[in-house]
Amino acid sequence: MKMRRALLILTLTTVLAGCGIGRVASPPSVFDLGLDAKPVPALPARAPIALSLQAAPALSDTSMIWRVGDSAAPKAYATFRWASSPSELVRQRITDRLSRQGPVLADRVNLQMPQLQLSLMQFEQVYAEDGQSSEGRVLLQAVLLNGRNVVDQKRIQVQAPAPTQDAAGGVAALRQATDEAADQLAQWLADVTRQGGNPR
C-alpha cells in the first residue's frame, strides 16, 4: 500500500508539474470559482451581519493544493493557480450567497451588530489512493458573536466529487463544496434566529 501510494504521488507530481526542460515555461492557467448562478435556499430575511474570515497559512496565497488520501504531504499544481487566495475567493463567495437573505458587511457598524467569524481550515483537491477519483474538500469553523458573547458555533465540512481528475475538475468540485458550505451557514444562521439568538 505504501509503495502504491508513493508511486501514485510520484506519477501525479510528474504529470502535474509538467516538463519545462528545453523550452520556456508557459504562464500558469488561472482559475476562480466562476459565476454564482446556483439558487440559494429559501430562508427568512435576516438582519445585517458583519463577516470576517481568516485562513490557514497555506491558503493565503494563490497555490492550488492537492494531496493523495490522508497524506500529510500536500502538493501544489505547478501550472495552475487561483486568481486570488482561497481565503479571498471563499470570503467573496460566502458574502455573495449570504447577502441573498440580508446585508453582509465587512466591519461592524456597532457592537450590537452580530458578527460571523469564519476560519477556513481546508480548501483542496484530494485524490483517492488509486488515482481514479478525487474530491474538493472545504472545512470551515464558524463562530457567531453578539457583542463580545459567543451565541453559537458550528463546524462545516463539505466534500464534492470532481468530474475530472485534474486541476479543472478540482476547481469544479471546490466551487460546489464552497456553495454548499455557504448554504449550510445560511441555514445555521436561520436556525439560530428561530431559537431566539441573534441575528434578528
Tell me about this structure:
The longest helix has 28 residues. The protein has one domain: Rossmann fold (3-Layer(aba) Sandwich). The chain has 200 residues and is α/β, with parallel strands linked by helices. The protein is elongated, with a radius of gyration of 19 Å. α2 crosses α3. Strands 1, 2, 3, 4, 5, 6, 7 and 8 form an eight-stranded mixed β-sheet that branches. The protein is built from three helices and eight strands. A hairpin with a 6-residue loop joins β3 and β4.
How are the SSEs placed, and which strands pair?
Elements: H1 2-17, E1 29-31, E2 49-55, E3 63-68, E4 75-82, H2 86-98, E5 104-105, E6 115-127, E7 134-146, E8 149-161, H3 167-194
Parallel strand pairs: 1-4, 2-5, 2-6, 3-6
Antiparallel strand pairs: 3-4, 6-7, 7-8
Helix pairs in contact: 2-3
Keywords:
eight-stranded mixed sheet, alpha/beta, Rossmann fold, 28% helix, 200 residues
Report how far the terminal alpha carbons are from each other.
53 Å
Number of helices: 3
Structural class given helices, strands, pairing?
Answer: alpha/beta
In CATH terms, what is the architecture? 3-Layer(aba) Sandwich
Strand content: 25-35%
Please tell me the total number of domains.
1
At CATH level 3, the topology is Rossmann fold
Helix content: 25-40%
Please mark out the parts with pLDDT under 50 across 5 or more consecutive residues, or reply none. 17-21
Biggest β-sheet description: 8 strands, mixed
Give the full name of the CATH homologous superfamily.
ABC-type transport auxiliary lipoprotein component
N-to-C order of helices and strands: HEEEEHEEEEH
| CATH first level | Alpha Beta
The total count of strands amounts to 8
Mean pLDDT: 88
Question: In one word, what is the shape?
Answer: elongated
